[in-house]
Q: What sequence folds into this?
DNA sequence: CTGTTAGCGCTTTCAT
DNA sequence: ATGAAAGCGCTAACAG
């Protein structure tokens, strides 16, 4: 590694000017004699001068950084959201600190504490779990001092905005599609236990009840949020001997598992059993037949989140919370 | 949002002590009278005092932050690597700034510039593209002043370490598996054009030639790095009328596409055509039949990267660059 | 055990 | 058009 970085004093001395002048040419602010400017710029260039964002932050009280808290960046849906948030913020001159909280309150609290010490300009919470986590008073207290946006969730605080996804409506789209094709024996494959997961489940039950189908509440298969979870749910359903002609899954990954298990058991899709997924992910396209799924638009969620956060940070209060409507994406499994 | 944050002076005044004493109790450093300590802690508590990491960074010249540059966090392989890096660094008290460079030199340069201004403690470059990008003098110059680890690549600099994945060997594993099963008409589905992609291709050619198979170099299908790319490669191969019994793919996603296209065209897998993927990703497991693939161990790469980076940062020069050997993971496509 | 003081590198008045 | 000086919030000698 090379010698110590030069600071603004070193540059000033070498250029034979004061630090104020250097600062002026650095920030293109105020008037500087063209000749002086040129001389300073030459010195800057020659020494590969890099201003210290820390020292600047000391004055401005901002490092132009936003914290993005997510459950687990390996989950494609979160990756898509975080990606778009990062790119958008980068264009606006902010860097993103990534925090994988595992959906745990304790980790969330630790990360938030550190982020507050680092004086982040704002925080984006990506995922419906944060609805629950933010209810905890110790977390709520931490969030009170900084602009916050909750991507897919509602936060009741003056310094926060929410971007909501109408997941209840999303699942209703899937159920209605199946009803339209004449399906009556429809089961729901439920994995997680977040606010969003609950909304999906409600969407399923309400839509079935609305269609006059009995015992909708009993038609739920609980499982884990992975490929194996989808497979297990199907095997248990088959074993139970219950009659079924369609499965609505809360995630593409469980839907892919369901399809896999059904095929292995000799069912034809969609002739014998129809399946729907959720997220419109790459998983849906890899699955053969391609999954009919629900697009819950993570990129749009990300764009709105960034828009709201920056309006909160820069106090250009022109926006407010918003809700996004999912769409059905037709595949070959219905 | 609440009132202005208190600083160490406010606390000192309220506790009736000097800022040094407050600093001492804050950092559990030096001796403080238990009674005084308690009083200060009470004031700290009552005011929800949060020390400024920026001011601390001003003194220590470090914000305990590491930049992770990757091509695109939405690519599962990078997500797995970045996830593990983030979690490991978090345990060691560092935060991670995520940068999606798109594999472009210009974006990389911009991000690096900013990261240097923010005085990051180190940089991890995730992905073989950075081999090429870091050759550019303007990029190389930027990297010269900070600890760097290249995850899957070689960087010839005093302040850097490398974690290499033996991708040539990885593909050789796949090819040998196919040769063992009697396959002779094997094609390689090549997508990208990075150092790693080239190594894979070399592994394919060398292994075939070693087995005495003619024209190995001509048995390459060029395509894009996505599901559609894998499908297209297969369709073109079929259309060409060439004889083939096995496909070695450079990525799971192209392998999944190949499988999909083959099934749609009526081929049985693996009876008519065998297929291998690369990455041991979720895609390999979703694919039906499950892909035989190569595990290139992103988590291990991440662990080593963090180990090497922290040894570089803390100057505990006990480690050096290392190479990771992939492993074959048997699926049902061979 | 505690307080005083000098930076850390920069921006920002305020003079000149 | 330029410079001098204060201050951002903290740590780390150094004194007492």
A:
């Amino acid at each position: 590694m090379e010698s110590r970085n030069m600071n603004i004093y070193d540059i000033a001395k070498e250029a034979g000017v004061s630090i104020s002048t250097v600062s002026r040419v650095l920030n293109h602010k105020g008037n500087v004699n063209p000749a002086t400017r040129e001389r300073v710029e030459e010195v800057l260039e020659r020494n590969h001068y890099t201003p210290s964002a820390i020292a600047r932050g000391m004055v401005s009280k901002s490092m132009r950084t936003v914290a993005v808290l997510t459950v687990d960046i390996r989950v494609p849906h979160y990756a898509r959201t975080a990606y778009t948030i990062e790119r958008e913020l980068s264009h606006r001159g902010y860097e993103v600190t990534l925090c994988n909280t595992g959906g745990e309150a304790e980790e969330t609290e630790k990360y938030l504490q550190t982020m507050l010490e680092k004086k982040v300009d704002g925080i984006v919470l990506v995922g419906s779990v944060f609805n629950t986590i933010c209810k905890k008073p110790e977390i709520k207290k931490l969030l009170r001092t900084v602009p916050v946006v909750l991507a897919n969730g509602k936060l009741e605080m003056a310094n926060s905005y929410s971007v909501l996804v109408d997941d209840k409506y999303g699942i209703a789209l899937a159920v209605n599609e199946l009803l339209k094709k004449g399906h009556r024996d429809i089961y729901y494959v439920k994995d997680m236990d977040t606010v969003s997961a609950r909304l999906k489940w409600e969407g399923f039950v309400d839509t079935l009840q609305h269609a006059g189908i009995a015992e909708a509440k009993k038609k739920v298969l609980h499982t884990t949020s992975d490929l194996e979870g989808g497979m297990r749910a199907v095997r248990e359903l088959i074993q139970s001997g219950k009659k079924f002609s369609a499965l609505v899954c809360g995630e593409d990954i469980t839907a892919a598992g369901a399809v896999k298990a059904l095929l292995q058991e000799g069912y034809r899709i969609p002739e014998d059993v129809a399946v729907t997924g959720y997220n419109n992910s790459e998983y849906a396209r890899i699955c053969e037949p391609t999954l009919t799924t629900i697009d819950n638009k993570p990129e749009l969620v990300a764009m709105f989140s960034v828009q709201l956060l920056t309006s909160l940070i820069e106090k250009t209060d022109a926006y407010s919370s918003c809700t996004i409507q999912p769409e059905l994406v037709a595949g070959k499994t219905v």
Chain A touches chain B through 61 residues (CB under 8 Å).
